[in-house]
Amino acid sequence: MKIIPSSKRHHYFARVIIFFLIVAGLIVWMTGCYTCFPKQYTLIISSTEGGSVTDPGEGTFTYNSGTVVDLVATPDAGYHFVEWTGDVDTIADVDNAATNITMNGSYNITANFALGISVRDWYDLDDIRNNLSGSYILMNDLDSSTAGYEELASPTANGGKGWQPIGPEGNEFVGSFDGQGYEIRDLFIDRPDEDFVGLFAVVEEGGVIEDIGVVNAAVTGDVFVGGLVGANAGTVSDSYCTGSVTGEYNVGGLVGVNAGNVSDSYSSGNVTSEEFVGGLVGATWGTVSDSYSSGNVTGGECVGGLVGGNAGITSDSYSTGTVTGNSSVGGLVGLLTVYMDKGEVSDSYSTGSVTGNSSVGGLVGENDDGTVDNSFWDTETSGQDSSDGGTGKNTTEMQDIATFNDTETEGLDEPWDITTVANPGERNTAYIWNIVDDETYPFLSWQS
Asked: Do the Cβ atoms of 262 and 254 come closer than 8 Å?
């Protein structure tokens, strides 16, 4: 056996010991200095049309873990900041254009902008009257607890008159107002000697009111009175009103008088007037479509569950509320007449109780040369076996899809745009109308 000299053996072991000491030292150093090299994350920032992110900018950025990054979104002229979207869990305030984000991971965020001026309280809403051609977007619900209510929209505001309607006659609203699905609640108006009364007084041609709910309203005026709009020559869509609306002439739960377009809207409040009063619209020579009313309507002459006086086009709509009046009283339309070659009702129905003294009908109270096509009323629930237009059906027939899509059915010339669904909570939005066969009346597919 070969013997290693002592000196060489000592040298060999020394080198081994030194090697292990170096390795051990590196391990200790790397363990102790792990935080000397913090983990890094990427932040991707972008924006929609209408503005930009000015701090820190847009693109891809790299930051150490835990870094707090300031964010500033700047809208272009005519636009406003809406919110931050994307990976927003560590953003301090997603609704604030100037905020910050903490880098606890890699994030992709977007600054969202929209055309229009933000409305966040009653003061902002009141400022609309100073620029009636502007574009406005409601950013949250307004109610009795929102700033400005006591001064502007409460029963004690403006000497007890409550809210001053926006856009009076001669200085009408011609801009746009997008409610974004939010609600304006607890609106109070008591102006019995004033005309053009509502949240908005007059919406002129080109003006747009959309996607807004007026809830628990108490509105009183004289002529042209509506929960949302007193007189409309523009467009009102995807909107609704609940509460009470009262006036003397041309009074509707949503719109007092309509020369424009009302669609995809409803009213469920109680409406009272002497003449031309409707659950949704008091009088119209424009169009009313894809809409309904369910509140009670009380009046003198020209009283309708949906429309008091129709000299325009009403289609794909219905009413279910109780209708009480003196003359020209109808479950859907009080008076149907012709104006500028218009005056028709089509693909519509009513089910509410109807009571009056003269010219009373389950669907139409009085028809002065107007046209009624493919429309029905429930003879049982209305208490009326006649109408000046339309076809009466019993409740079973009114809940049978064959009534609305089988042209062998009496009173049906063309099938409705309707389909069956399995239950009342299901919707098929490819059709205007849905029905649970043999269970419900037809309902509009946009209804919640």
From this structure: yes
- Token pair in block for residue 34: 């792990």
- List Cβ neighbours of 269 (8 Å cut-off, separation of 6 or more): 217, 227, 241, 242, 243, 244, 245, 253, 295
Do 339 and 368 form a contact (C-beta atoms < 8 A)? Answer: no
- Can the peptide bond before residue 56 be classed as cis, meaning omega within 30 degrees of 0? yes
Q: CB–CB of 414/387 below 8 Å?
A: no
Q: For the whole model, what pTM was predicted? A: 0.80
Alpha carbons 134 and 177: distance in angstroms, whole number: 8
The residue assigned the tokens 């997008």 is: 178
**For the segment 292-340, what is each residue's pLDDT rounded down to a tens digit?**
999 999 999 999 999 999 999 999 999 999 999 999 999 999 999 988 8
Among 222, 274, 284, residue whose Cα is nearest residue 254:
284
Note the pLDDT tens digit of each residue in 55-113: 999 999 999 999 999 999 999 877 888 899 999 999 999 989 999 999 999 999 999 98
Gap between the Cα atoms of 221 and 230, Å rounded: 9
Query: How distant is the alpha carbon of residue 141 from its chain centre?
Result: 11
**Alpha carbons 278 and 297: distance in angstroms, whole number:** 6
CA distance 39 to 109: 20
Beta-bridged to residue 91, according to DSSP, are 101
User: Is 251:245 a contact under the CB 8 Å cutoff?
Assistant: yes
> So what CATH class is 117-413?
mainly beta
CA atoms of 448 and 434, how far apart (whole Å)? 12
Domain boundaries of the chain, sorted by first residue: 40-114, 117-413
Helix (H, G, I), strand (E, B) or coil at 392: strand
CA atoms of 370 and 266, how far apart (whole Å):
24
Percent of the chain with pLDDT over 90: 85
pLDDT band at 114 (very low <50, low <70, confident <90, very high): confident
**Which of 377, 264, 374, 259 shows the shortest CA–CA distance to 329?**
377
pLDDT of residue 80: 81
Q: How far is CA 42 from CA 105, 112, 348, in A?
A: 8, 20, 57
The upper half-sphere exposure of residue 422, i.e. CA atoms within 13 Å in the direction of its Cβ, equals: 1
